[in-house]
Amino acid sequence: MKLERKIYNQIFRVEMTPARILVLGFSIAILLGAGLLYLPFSTTAGHRCSFVDALYTSTSAVCVTGLIVKDTAKDFTPAGKIIILFLIQIGGLGYMSLATVLSLMVGRKISLRERLIIQEAYNVLTLEGLARFATRILRVTIVLEGLGAVILSLHWWKLGFPLSKALELGIFHSVSAFCNAGFSLFSNGLLDYAADPVVSLTVCGLIVSGGLGFIAISDIYKTGIQRTEKKLTAHSKLVIMMTLSLIITGTILIYMLERNNTLINLSASGKWLAALFQSVTPRTAGFNTVNIGLMHFPTLMLIIILMFIGASPGGTGGGIKTTTFGVMMASIWTTLTGRSRVLIFKKRLEHALINRAFVLSAIAAMMLVLVTLLLLQAEISHFTAERMMPVLFEVVSAFGTVGLSIGSSLNPLLSFSYDFGNWGKLLIILTMFAGRLGPLTMGSAVVWRRKDQPFEYPEAKVLIG
């Protein structure tokens, strides 16, 4: 009886920690979205979704990934596209931010539990000022998405699209880019705009803005515009330094690797512009202005690394995050140079923070290996040895909530996932979900916390390396 009671308590009396509430909230949003997309009014005649495809599309939208098994431009009705756009916005902002702002608008106070959930969702270090922070997130989003929508709409109108269509394209792509979602209303993505500086640079600007994270954006605003703070925090400095380093390094390497391949038909300036775009977009956005499936293997490996690192904390993107990568690099450099304290910008990093960075990356790497292995087993009848790279690319893209894909062999306009059976698609759905919430949030939601022992065991001596 005691064992049965214990099992009952574990299942039905689960403590609703902030991590579990986040998992539950995102799950409900995804299921509601899947239910709506499954209904006939969401899809055009002859292109109705199966429930798994509706679930896949809804997860991809809420988790701001952009992997597709249905053509967003042709297979969904205007109602279906609005549902997808709404899901992208909920996923990009986080449903708790919207709920917080709505609560404040009706004069309701934010409870401690709600503050803890926002803190978990955005990895904020303190509970102070979280209600103002949520409001600021909404303002920043409206301003930047609005600015992007105006620029893109005017540009597409100037290129000859009817005003209503230009507005539809501008709003959808601006929201999709800022939320780092990667959904496009063009069947071939942005392939026709590889040398178009207005589209490329506007989309790049929105992707980087959304990927910097609201914490860094708020810090930059208070330091550079409002001038209420004298200097940036170490977090914001690290975010900016890592973001610029990854974009510049990625641009140079992609240009060198692809200038005689996928970039060969572009002008000199067009090649650099396309290389810049493809260096920015693996930072969890998923748009592409060149054919990813035709890239050389070294370029695909480089993009896999960029997708794994992803965006910055507290933003709309996924991956292990730029600051996690930065902390690990600083720790490795400290170890190699024989020093004992890890420093960034003349500030010391705590051992617990460094340990968290390595644990998070290790869990992410193990999860990617496991999902790739399960996917290869589930789809073993379809794959040969040379298909290993596309599978790994798709899994990392799903985990990083990027959305880039080598493309389906059956329909090149869709993601590689289109070739998978239902089990394969479900594995990608779970990977997108884990990538959006983060391995540590998922882990703390699933694992029951144990109290520390009130005593110390003797120290163990283990040889490393």
Describe the structure.
By secondary structure, this protein is an all-alpha fold. The chain has 19 helices and two strands. The chain has a two-stranded antiparallel ribbon. Strand 1 and strand 2 form a beta hairpin. Helix 8 runs antiparallel to helix 10. The longest helix has 29 residues. It is globular and about 70 Å long. The model has no long low-confidence stretch (mean pLDDT 84).
- Biggest sheet statistics: 2 strands, antiparallel
Rg calc:
22 Å
Secondary structure tally: strands: 2
For the biggest β-sheet, the strand order reads 1-2
Q: Please give the share of residues in helix.
A: 55-70%
Order of helices and strands: HHHHHHHHHHHHHHHEEHHHH
Q: Could you say which overall geometry the principal axes of the C-alpha atoms support?
A: globular
Structural class category:
mainly alpha
| N-to-C span | 48 Å
Overall average pLDDT: 84
Strand content: under 5%
Number of separate helices: 19
Unreliable spans are: none
